[in-house]
Design goal:
Length: 373
């Protein structure tokens, strides 16, 4: 009897392991065939980019959104639900918004991509500010085509990187008429930054944070100096010659969306867990707080204090969340929770499209090469 039970457990664990390996292999394969098809299509459409740019960027946005649908399917298929709490953000989906979130693990990106994808026209019209290391991955190539920005950390290159960010906002964010601009001000993962953040806090008589790291202000100040209310005029002037109809109203950031990501028991879903589906089904909660951009101070010192205050509030929010499993009841928020629902058909269709695209591209390549054989 004992031998039979042990044998059953071994077989069950083996089957589970094989399922996880198969799932991970499929996720990796889907990432390869979807990103490669996206890149080839945009290369083939390069003449359209030159002569009819608005059509090119419309197509690019659709393909980019389909890539995000594939990434969103990772959480959906593993039973990792995403719950939204806090302020109602429906009114700002089509508004120019700076999105800032705490950053605990690489899995945060998948969670946020899923949330973006669930909102109409949000994903294709977003622009992300990412760590330079992501540039050297297969998705980094996709980000280059989509014109996301890669920021360089480190004191030596900070000023030059912020200058490049300002230029990118003027050259890419404004002319593409992007809406949501996503930023993680902590500048890296929590477990990497916590110790240095606490040392800095002790040295400068700032609050000691455990659940978040003190944010870095440089990127946000550059964004607000370039696109903030009454501060986007110079950016507008630099672009006015190319788009005479452009006005300050459609160049400046209108809202700040502050997202606090809470994981069950304070155990973040890392990228490996999401890809393999190794962990049990769980609920990740996104707590939204909306601020009009007009409340953000102009001066560096005041802006730094404003941003630090938001992160001190995040610390308290997460303390409450880890104790009670919800953000409701904090900051006067008593809104009901809303689960993000994804349409399975809208996640299957991109897979089929990208698979067929690879077949078409391969056939085209073989046809061309046949002339040389």
């Amino acid at each position: 009897m004992l031998y039979g039970t042990r044998k059953y457990i071994i077989m069950n664990n083996t089957v589970t392991l094989l399922k996880r390996v198969a799932r991970a292999a499929f996720q990796i394969l889907s990432t390869i065939y979807s990103s490669s098809a996206y890149i080839v299509w945009l290369m083939l459409l390069f003449p359209v980019k030159i002569y009819i740019p608005q059509v090119y960027w419309r197509i690019e946005g659709l393909l980019y959104d389909w890539l995000n649908a594939i990434m969103a399917s990772w959480t959906w298929s593993a039973g990792y639900d995403i719950i939204e709490q806090g302020d109602d953000i429906q009114k700002i989906i089509n508004e120019k918004t700076l999105v800032m979130a705490n950053h605990q693990t690489a899995g945060d990106s998948v969670i946020l991509v899923t949330a973006f994808h669930s909102k109409p026209n949000c994903s294709p019209n977003s622009l992300w500010i990412l760590d330079i290391m992501l540039k050297f991955t297969n998705f980094g190539i996709v980000c280059i085509f989509h014109q996301n920005f890669f920021i360089v950390s480190g004191r030596e290159q900070r000023e030059e990187s912020l200058k490049q960010l300002r230029k990118h906002l003027i050259d890419s964010y404004i002319p593409r008429d992007r809406k949501w601009l996503a930023l993680c001000p902590e500048g890296g993962l929590l477990y990497k930054n916590r110790e240095s953040s606490q040392k800095y806090a002790k040295k400068n008589n700032l609050p000691i944070l455990e659940n978040v790291a003190l944010p870095r202000v440089g990127a946000m100040k550059t964004i607000m100096d370039t696109l903030g209310p009454a501060r986007s005029r110079d950016a507008e002037d630099q672009y006015r010659n190319n788009r005479p109809s452009m006005t300050a109203a459609n160049t400046e950031i209108s809202w700040i969306l502050d997202i606090t990501i809470g994981y069950p028991d304070g155990k973040p879903l890392d990228l490996t867990t999401i890809v393999t589906g190794w962990g049990p089904p769980c609920k990740t909660v996104l707590f939204y707080r909306l601020f009009p951009s007009s409340v953000v101070p102009h001066e560096t010192e005041q802006l730094t204090k404003w941003l630090y205050d938001r992160w001190v509030e995040k610390e308290a929010l997460l303390e409450h969340f880890y104790k009670h499993g919800t953000f409701l009841g904090t900051n006067g928020s008593n809104r009901t929770s809303t689960k993000i629902h994804l349409d399975p058909l809208k996640m299957i269709v991109p897979h089929l499209f990208f698979i067929m695209s690879n077949y078409i591209h391969g056939s085209m390549l073989m046809y061309v090469l046949s002339y040389f054989w």
